[in-house]
Design a protein that fits this description.
The structure is a homodimer of 225-residue chains. Chain A is an alpha/beta fold. Chain A has a single domain, classed as 3-Layer(aba) Sandwich (Rossmann fold). Chain A contains seven helices and nine strands; from the N terminus they run ααβαβαββαβαββαββ. The first copy, chain A, has a seven-stranded mixed sheet, sandwiched between helices. In chain A, strands 6-7 form a two-stranded antiparallel sheet. In chain A, helix 1 packs parallel to helix 4 (79-86). The A-B interface holds A 150, 152-153, 155, 159-161, 186-188, 191-192, 195, 200-201, 203-206, 208, 213-215 and B 150, 152-153, 155, 159-161, 186-188, 191-192, 195, 200-201, 203-206, 208, 213-215.
């Protein structure tokens, strides 16, 4: 891990409890009004038999997909988040870093229909590790579904080019968050990097804020060639 | 043609001479500093044997591609622009509307390596007509290369959703332009519409302004499946 990646890892350890509360109480407006529903819809449209939620956090998305009977697993590098995820009497959650993903075993599932990364590709090398893991963990024509901040919106006043940025966690519930860096990518880069690992774009969606009508996130669906 | 499409057609008739002067004198800053070079690069990267420049205007891009020996044709619905294009002693320019493209014959070329649409998909049905024409005019795995305003930038304060918009032609050279409507599409729509006609995205580029470092246009390269 480089310094920024270590800072991301450490921040989740510090933020795990606050994050779990914020997600439980649906205190992130963009998630409540748009992006939660958007990722569920994007996954269900693919009609997957199995999924792996990469960076599952406290597990809300897994539970949403387990509920109608889609089988899968959640993984997260943060042990405290996985502990929170397991509180709901489902054991399909594993502590696993992205770099260990390709060799991780999942009891009953050898290959997944899809990997899901819902706002969970934060570091620079996460993308590489997940794209490579997909080659081992995805069935033929398996999909990687990524939701992330819409680059044009997330860019703010900074140059529109790849690079490390600092988070602003202000204004989420009443919780205090320890800040962490994240790696910004342009739309061009998201697509080109996955193409470089032999995926192709199957679908791109731009969920919008229902009131402002501006994009709030972007969803890429890549297929393994 | 519906009313908006008729207005676009009529505006080019009125604007043809002003437009020709503006292009000659490189008076559109974004073209001079970024987008002209970007489209030439995008085409040359594909190493095409032949091209069809759809909505070629006064022909500058064709001449740029003829010059290193790439064979091709330029078509435009506006007769005055094609007349201007032919002033340079090259006859490979034809007056042809997008709706007539699929049945248009080109003396020496039966199928093209690529169609190029450089800021020339303005109306709503242009996309459909060009996508369908591609099925007749492109060789197997032929490409459609589109450069257009970057939707997130072009959107301005309006809702980020498909629909007709009014142009603002202000500030281009010292010329007066007759305004015309154009049809706005989100990035999601550009991709989904071409996918609906059995193309796939091969490449997406976001040329940036060299000073502000903000996207100035977007280039889609679609391949015929």
């Amino acid at each position: 891990m480089n310094e920024n990646e270590q800072r991301i890892f450490d921040s989740w350890k510090i933020n795990a409890k606050s994050w779990t509360r914020v997600i439980h109480h649906q205190q992130i407006e963009s998630r409540a009004i748009a992006t939660d529903a958007a990722i569920i819809k994007a996954v269900k449209e693919l009609n997957p038999q199995t999924f792996l939620d990469v960076g599952c956090g406290e597990g809300w998305l897994c539970r949403q997909l387990f509920s109608p009977g889609i089988d899968g697993w959640g993984v997260d590098a943060c042990a405290d988040l996985i502990e929170a995820a397991r509180l709901y009497n489902d054991s399909r959650f594993i502590v696993c870093s992205y770099s260990d993903l390709r060799s991780q075993k999942f009891e009953n599932i050898l290959r997944f229909s899809c990997l899901i990364c819902n706002f969970s590709i934060l570091g620079q090398r996460d993308l590489t590790q997940i794209a490579e893991a997909g080659c081992h963990l995805l069935e033929d024509h398996g999909k990687i579904i990524i939701q992330t901040l819409h680059p044009l919106i997330a860019c703010g006043d900074a140059p529109y080019e790849d690079g490390w940025r600092e988070t602003s966690w202000t204004g989420i519930g009443n919780e205090v968050f320890h800040p962490a860096p994240w790696y910004f990518r342009t739309i061009e880069s998201w697509i080109q990097e996955f193409y470089g690992y032999n995926y192709r774009l199957l679908n791109l969606q731009e969920p919008c804020h229902p009131i402002t009508k501006k994009p709030i996130s972007i969803i890429f669906v890549f297929e393994r060639c």
